[in-house]
Amino acid sequence: MFYTLLMALVAIPVLAQFDFTPQSKVETKSIKSEVLGAERSYTVLLPKSYETNTDKKYPVLYLLHGSGFTDNVWFERLHLKDVMDLLVSSGEASEMIVVTPNAGGNILEGAWNTYYDILEWKYETFFFTEFLPYIEKEYRIIGDKSHRAIGGFSMGGGASVWYAQHYPEMFSAVYAMSSTLRYKQELIDMQLDMVKGLQLQDFIIDRYRKTSTKLIENDCVKFIEEADEATESRLRSTAWFIDFGDDDHYVGLEWNTDFVMAMRKLNIPCEYRVRNGGHDLEFWHSGLYLCLPFASRNFAK
């Protein structure tokens, strides 16, 4: 009896070190798309209070991954759940639902890697007509501009800017890391020359060429430079944040700077950070510590 009581007393301070309150939850599911004629996975991060406060609705952040990755990179490689739990606990970020759709896969196996509409793979149409409406019905999401944000890295960073440019009435904020905001034919040709020795099948090269060419057509800098007054006004209703690494590709740094300068020329507020880092997982992970509070601040407005 004495021994049992002693062990219980010893266990009390040990147990006190552990947090038994509900934790945020990550779940991966899929949606069958009629637009794409395929099933696409997505991953969702649900806040700590989601299962206990069943009457509460939440703001939502859509995060778009880069080329060659899929939706789970945010959790398996960038540790989004850990960062979110830490920032919510410290009060630096508010509770929100985070959704990461899948728009990629292994390029060398022929997976499509694009958030844009290609003739055979209309992902942008899928995102806005099927995916987003489905998500905001499936989960307890507030579902208005003031409580919806978007962000991403690399290909996904460029797409988040493109989406917010064309649908500014839908997003309160956009956070773009290491973004592909424009492209050049010379880069496509150079990259195709680099993989000649791999003897890739023609359909893989064709898909890469089509998705890369779409980046040339969907030039985010040119969109700003050609914006009319009505478009300028619409863009001012969204908060913009461009985040780039000083060791990233110099052309990318030039293009991201061109974008910010074009925005400033039109008096469209846009935060710009050039931080230490490259085009890599470490930079994107650290960017979450800026991205999540930024989204939270704009939800609060």
From TrEMBL:
Cited InterPro entries: AB_hydrolase_fold (IPR029058), Esterase-like (IPR000801), Mycobacterial_A85_antigen (IPR050583)
Keywords on record: Hydrolase, Signal
An MF annotation (GO) of this entry: acyltransferase activity, transferring groups other than amino-acyl groups
Keyword Hydrolase: yes
Extent of the signal sequence: 1-16
Protein name (record): S-formylglutathione hydrolase FrmB
Species assigned in the record: Dysgonomonas macrotermitis
